[in-house]
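Schema walk-through. Below, the input block comes first and the output block second. Nothing else is stored per chain. Lengths vary across the set, and this one has 120 residues.
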Amino acid sequence: METREPEITEKPWGYELLYALTGSYAGKVIFVRRNHRLSLQYHRFKEETMYFQSGRALVETGPEATLLSENILKAGQSLHLPAGTCHRIKALEDTIILEVSTPHLEDVIRLDDDYGRAGK
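--- output ---
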């Protein structure tokens, strides 16, 4: 049996709590404060599925930044994002998301960011 201490990373929009990281998968709890949003981003290799545990969020997804569709996801719903999918999440209420993904945690291409992190 292997145990690990979760790693909390503070973000300008909330935080991420990384509770699992293996060569095959990663698991995170993501907290997004009301009226804050994540970067408009995509991943070259990372594939992820998100389960909205609580709250409500506006989710933009599409094949590229100029072709995004909007959906509101609420507690109990999930979303699968294949690699290459542009996406952004804006919390309409304080929102907690459970994310499972491939372990490519540094694979983030930010196209737009409210906190000046695009291109970083």
